[in-house]
Automatic annotation (TrEMBL):
InterPro entries: NAD(P)-bd_dom_sf (IPR036291), SDR_fam (IPR002347). Pfam families: adh_short. This is 3-oxoacyl-ACP reductase. The lineage of its organism: Bacteria, Pseudomonadati, Pseudomonadota, Gammaproteobacteria, Legionellales. It comes from Legionella feeleii. Its EC number is 1.1.1.35.
Amino acid sequence: MNLDNQIAVITGGASGMGKACAQALTARGVRVVIWINR
């Protein structure tokens, strides 16, 4: 699947699964927006 130039919004991206997903997606060319609510 080609994910180049796609945008993903991830909630809870500071740690755990959210962080892992953000890192995996950016490695595949996805632009990631991370929402952290503390």
